[in-house]
Design brief:
Chain lengths: 479, 439
């Protein structure tokens, strides 16, 4: 189960999915992506042993197929919005109640829309929302008072949560979810119905990224509250339901532990790359390359300021950024262009657009720069290490543990520190080459592709072997 | 600065400095400490827990962001183009009657009007009323051309020359709608005006209509060819488009079932449509304010007072203003037209028909509003009942005055639809949440 990534969108998570699906050919893969209804074509071709079994389009107008027991569903479904708001948004919401409600959605797909379009469903939702807003838990802060527009927006979002739960899933031996959010919903229902084991891989920490997005986008307190509490509710349900949680880095594991997960469930499986046998030396052209989406999480503004300061000391330095402006971040993309002009960077910093050859562009650099404020275990850094290029990066997520001894790490947003680190490496190409080679060697030892694949092969085989049918749990919503 | 050296007070200061406010909860505080202060996750979570105040603060009042208003640029231009084309097409009746016979034109119009309305409503529901819907229609150019061929061939096979004329008129009018929505009204207006000039100059009327339909079709293909949607969004549901098409058929039937209205009596019937059509267009334009009026009425209203009275005042006011504008403009234009008695013939006859068209236009506007608020079934039922009543009057011959069928059907439709519309507007929160945002 994927969410906004494989096989439709290019990016680190998608590349990882593609690697797994293509390389673990002994498994039959059934891909169930959650996507926006934008008619986007697939970016990745699926191999013969993989198929896309369905495509969940959220915020489309398509109706679900009719379920059984329509009149019964009408009676029992009116509590659905109320259960979802109380247990997904409540600080101490009951994840079992959420999963039971989702199971009801799966059994009565047509009842979901009916429940949410009914006056009683709306009234029950408002009552549930008032309960949530009245909660007073010290660590949860005081919930803001949402207005009716925010309440209606949340209601619509919960409708799509319920619609996602209603989508049928195929019979399978193991469920593999790639984010502790929307992608987990169909899996949790499937698990509740069939007892199928579930693996959750977290590249970034879903909750952390939702909070970061909410903190930076300047939304109203009510919208921020709704978005973050929903993300937290989805993540809690995913963590509770997963048999194994496989973060890609120890840093993510610390977050997951901090969110109250049983440590016994956590198995860190690093991402990996296949490094070339013998790396080529850097071009020594004072070229700094960065690869990634132009997205606030990547903090491209800091990157531009780093470039400006570096060029101030070393006018021959050249910065090349490869990566697209993702859909929905066009305003941020324009702000980057505006800052580029304001800093007078001209051709010293060039936005090169997306690349289909990340290894090639990294190979043509002397230093690889990353300024993200949130990361798991970024592929861009592994690619730099694979090409024996030193990394200058912000110390977020799993970055410090990855680049230990083969790059320089600064606090997020520290453009001066990052710039000094870049300068030091550009002025000392021998040191840069030495660090690069150490990175190359470290990648081969710790973050290599075969170790990553072997870890997943073993995990999936174990879970598939252990899969047993379980009794269907008692449900809060009855037919 | 590292997590190890941060105490709760320092952590709190860092977080507030970064956010410009107190954190929403400990998770937000932890995220900020990690992302912007470089504090490792474990330390950030621990520091965040300790910095949250033990006593609850007063809840902050939130005001949600309103949806962006729809772009209405060019709508008035479209309206002007619409008026010009109605007047021009009104001038076609006489030359067409002379060319192919009055009965053939009568039959053609009785077929073309419901068919055109059905296509316009269905296309509107699935494509045209949606953001970038016209551009997305470009993906269906082949289907559109096949549809145009079917609209021409099938009625021709079934009804002969009348069917051919009906097909050509349907293609022209429906194509005109597409061109206006694509913001190419000038092309359509030019084609219609040239056709009118040719007809007045005694050119073969049927051939002129054929050429106009062909030109319109090519213009539509060219217009769609040159449009690329910036973002592909989901289209309207087929079921809903079919229902909208059925509503269009019903409204078309209401338009033609009144046997006292002759569509071939020169330009008179088409001109009699003008006051109600123009007023309906203006009213419909004003109704677009509901897009903003409904959420605005709810903005800043805390969920705790959801049942507060008076929330529906603003949306209902928009409806009343719309009705007022409609009645005012329709009345003024109708009176002007009536004063041109020699054109309309008997003034009493003209008055009945004008009132009938006015009520029908009002019904169409309200039916459209109800359908757009997700109550298509009720709208279809109302249109069906009204068309049925008009059919009964037609076949029993019980029309006490000219235009009585139109008046009765339109009034019945308004009576059935208006309470439902008012009911939805008086409860804007429920309508927004359960009908508008859950299609």
């Amino acid at each position: 189960m994927t969410e906004g990534t494989y096989p439709y969108v290019m990016g680190g998570v998608s590349s990882w999915c593609n690697l797994l699906v293509e390389s673990l050919a002994e498994f039959d893969w059934q891909v169930l992506p959650i996507v926006a209804p934008d008619g986007r074509p697939r970016t990745f071709a699926l191999p013969a042993h993989a198929e896309e079994v369905a495509r969940i389009e959220v915020w489309s107008e398509e109706l679900p197929k009719r379920g059984r027991g329509r009149s019964a569903a009408r009676r029992s479904g009116v509590d659905l919005p109320s259960i979802l708001v109380r247990h997904l948004l409540g600080w101490e919401g009951n994840t079992d109640a959420v999963v039971s409600a989702w199971v009801w959605c799966r059994r009565h797909p047509a009842g979901v829309r009916r429940a949410f379009r009914s006056a009683r469903g709306w009234a029950a939702f408002l009552a549930g929302l008032r309960e949530v807003l009245a909660e007073r838990v010290p660590e949860a802060g005081t919930p803001p008072t949402l207005d009716m527009v925010e309440a209606a927006t949340l209601y619509q979002t919960l409708y799509w949560v319920a619609r996602t739960a209603a989508v049928p899933t195929p019979q399978t031996d193991v469920l593999h979810v790639t984010a502790a959010g929307w992608a987990a919903i169909p899996s949790l229902v499937h698990k509740a119905l069939h007892g199928t084991p579930m693996v959750l891989t977290e590249h970034g920490v879903y909750v952390r990224e939702a909070y970061l997005a909410a903190a930076r986008n300047g939304d109203s307190p009510g919208s921020r509250f709704a978005a973050t509490r929903l993300a937290r509710g989805l993540a809690r349900a995913a963590y509770a339901g997963a048999d194994v949680i496989a973060p890609v880095t120890d840093a993510n594991a610390y977050w997951e532990l901090g969110l109250g997960i049983d440590p016994g469930k956590i198995l860190v499986l690093y991402n990996g790359l296949q490094p070339p046998a013998e790396p080529t030396p850097p071009p020594r052209t004072q070229t700094v390359v960065s690869v990634g989406r132009l997205d606030p999480l990547k903090d491209a503004h800091t990157m531009l300021r780093v470039a400006a300061e570096t060029v101030g000391y070393m006018p021959s330095a050249q910065f090349l950024h490869y990566g697209p402006v993702p859909r929905g971040e066009e305003v941020y993309g324009r702000s980057c262009v505006a800052l580029h002009q304001r800093l007078g960077l001209r051709d010293r910093f060039r936005f090169m657009g997306p690349t289909g050859d990340p290894n090639g562009v990294v190979r043509a650099s002397d230093v690889v720069l990353m300024t993200s404020i949130s990361e798991g275990l970024p592929m861009a850094i592994l690619e730099a290490m694979g090409q024996a290029r030193p990394v200058v990066s912000t110390g977020v997520g799993g970055v410090p543990e990855v680049v230990r001894g083969c790059g320089l790490v600064c606090p997020p947003g520290d453009d001066h520190g990052l710039s000094m680190a870049v300068l030091m490496l550009l002025r000392n190409p021998d040191l840069a080459w030495r660090l690069g080679r150490r990175g190359h060697s470290r990648l081969g030892r710790l973050f290599n592709e075969s170790a990553c694949l072997e870890g997943y092969r073993e995990l999936l085989q174990t879970l598939a072997g252990n899969a047993t049918e379980r009794a269907v749990p008692a449900l809060g919503l009855t037919a | 600065m590292t997590g190890a050296t941060l105490d709760a007070r320092e952590a709190g200061l860092v977080v507030e400095a970064r956010l410009g406010r107190a954190p929403q909860d400990m998770l937000e505080a932890a995220v900020v400490l990690e992302a912007w202060a470089g504090v490792p996750a474990q330390a950030a979570l621990a520091a965040a827990r300790t910095m949250m105040p033990p006593v609850a603060a007063a809840p902050q009042r939130s005001v949600g962001r309103l949806p962006r208003p729809r772009n209405q640029e060019g709508v008035l231009l479209d309206g002007a183009a619409f008026v010009v084309t109605v007047i021009a097409i009104a001038c076609w009746a006489a030359p067409l009657g002379s060319s192919v016979g009055v009965a053939v034109v009568e039959h053609a119009l009785m077929l073309a009007l419901p068919l055109t309305l059905a296509l316009q409503w269905a296309l509107g529901s699935r494509f045209l009323d949606r953001p970038h819907g016209v551009a997305q229609l470009a993906d269906h150019r082949g289907t559109l051309i096949l549809g145009a061929v079917a609209v021409l061939v099938l009625p021709s096979l079934a009804f002969g020359l009348g069917g051919t004329l009906a097909g050509l008129l349907t293609i022209t009018w429906t194509g005109g709608t597409l061109l206006m929505r694509r913001r190419w009204p000038a092309v359509y207006v030019l084609a219609i005006l040239l056709a009118t000039v040719a007809m007045v100059a005694d050119a073969e009327a049927l051939a002129v209509v054929g050429v106009t339909a062909a030109v319109t079709t090519f213009a539509v293909v060219a217009a769609l060819w040159s449009s690329v949607p910036p973002v592909r969004r989901s289209l309207g549901r087929w079921e809903r488009a079919v229902m909208a098409g059925a509503i269009g058929v019903g409204l078309g039937l209401m338009l033609i079932l009144d046997r006292t209205v002759s569509w071939t009596d020169g330009a008179v019937p088409a001109l009699a449509l003008l006051p109600s059509a123009v007023a309906g267009f203006w009213g419909g334009y004003h109704l677009r304010h509901l897009d903003q009026a409904i959420p605005s009425a709810l903005s800043g209203v805390p969920v705790g007072v959801a049942n507060a009275r008076g929330l529906g005042r603003a949306p209902v006011r928009v409806l009343l203003e719309t009705l007022g504008r409609f009645l005012l403009l329709c009345g003024a234009l109708s009176a002007t037209l009536l004063s041109l008695t020699p054109w309309l013939g008997d003034s009493a006859r003209g008055a009945g028909v004008l009132v009938g068209f006015a009520v029908l236009a009002l019904a169409s506007m309200l039916v459209g509003l109800l359908e757009s608020m997700g109550r298509g079934r009720w709208a279809l039922l109302a249109v069906g009942v009204a068309a049925g009543a008009e059919a009964a009057i037609r076949f029993t011959g019980a029309d006490p005055f000219p235009g009585a069928g139109l008046v009765v059907a339109g009034t019945l439709c308004v009576v059935l639809v208006l309470p439902a519309v008012l009911g939805l507007l008086r409860r804007p929160a429920r309508t927004l949440a359960t009908a508008l945002w859950i299609p």
